[in-house]
């Protein structure tokens, strides 16, 4: 990965931290993208020291703010000439049904709408590389998702989380279709059940975590392996629009098979995040 530029969202801890660490060990220039300045800078210090790589830095990114996402992209474009790998790793479970100032459910904005906007805005940078990659961290929970309940505050937090992860895979497939032949490959993955802070946002899940996570769940390092695989493996040079578990391609839920559903979700997402026509130029399929 020497000479390659990688962005990892949510890289201040858990799977994202371990993903960033492994890529830094392989020589990549790694941008830690997360909300907390303190945690982001701490991650930079640790990763730089452990990986013996000084090409690690932090840029503030708050996925609950569309303005913050745009600011992050502007800063990245001003400081980097290209982007080789974008890993949309950040995720959250929000037990309270809250909307952001952008009018979107907080958990769905963090898990899906934010990464959707971030990725679209960074496609021009990804296209500057002969072969670049987008990685979307989804979950086996996508099987319980319901597209018709996207951004619906009347559903429970588990349902909302599952739906956002289903959106990740549908977005992956639609983006891969739109970027076919450009050199940008797009894949999604299930990291498995991993012992991370994601489960500390719920009292019930925290109790479960204290009982079984240390015995049956993967460590964050183990959970990061499929993300790393999709970022570095030569086997993934041509695989696009696929879904992986444990570094192998597997079939996701049949809910992800409908191209019309993926297209409808895309159009709805464009409107909800406020994308402009010129920002969509690099991902628009010519009707001619």
UniProtKB/TrEMBL annotation:
<dbReference type="Pfam" id="PF00106">
    <property type="entry name" value="adh_short"/>
</dbReference>
<dbReference type="GO" id="GO:0016491">
    <property type="term" value="F:oxidoreductase activity"/>
</dbReference>
<keyword id="KW-0560">Oxidoreductase</keyword>
<dbReference type="InterPro" id="IPR036291">
    <property type="entry name" value="NAD(P)-bd_dom_sf"/>
</dbReference>
<dbReference type="InterPro" id="IPR002347">
    <property type="entry name" value="SDR_fam"/>
</dbReference>
<protein>
    <recommendedName>
        <fullName>Retinol dehydrogenase 14</fullName>
    </recommendedName>
</protein>
């Amino acid at each position: 990965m020497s000479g390659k530029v990688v962005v990892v969202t949510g890289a201040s801890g858990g799977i994202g931290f371990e993903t960033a660490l492994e890529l830094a060990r392989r020589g990549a220039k790694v941008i830690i993208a997360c909300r907390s300045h303190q945690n982001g800078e701490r991650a930079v210090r640790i990763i730089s020291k452990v990986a013996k790589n000084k090409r690690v830095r932090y840029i503030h990114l708050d996925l609950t703010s569309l303005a913050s996402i745009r600011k992050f992209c502007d800063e990245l474009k001003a400081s980097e000439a290209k982007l080789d790998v974008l890993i949309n790793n950040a995720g959250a479970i929000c037990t309270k049904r809250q909307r952001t100032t952008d009018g979107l459910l907080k958990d769905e904005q963090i898990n899906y709408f934010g990464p959707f906007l971030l990725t679209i805005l960074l496609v021009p940078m990804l296209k500057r590389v002969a072969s670049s990659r987008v990685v979307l961290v989804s979950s086996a929970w996508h099987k319980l998702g319901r597209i018709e309940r996207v951004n619906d505050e009347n559903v429970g937090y588990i349902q909302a989380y599952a739906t956002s992860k289903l959106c990740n895979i549908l977005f992956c497939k639609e983006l891969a279709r739109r970027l076919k032949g450009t050199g940008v490959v797009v894949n999604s993955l299930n990291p498995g059940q991993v012992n991370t802070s994601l489960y500390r946002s719920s009292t019930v899940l925290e109790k479960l975590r204290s009982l079984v996570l240390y015995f049956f769940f993967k460590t964050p390092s183990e959970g990061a392996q499929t993300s790393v695989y999709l970022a570095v493996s030569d086997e993934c040079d041509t695989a696009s629009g696929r879904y992986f578990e444990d570094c192998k391609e597997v079939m996701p839920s049949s809910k992800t098979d409908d191209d019309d559903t993926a297209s409808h979700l895309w159009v709805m997402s464009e409107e909800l995040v406020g994308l402009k026509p010129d920002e969509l130029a690099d991902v628009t399929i010519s009707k001619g």
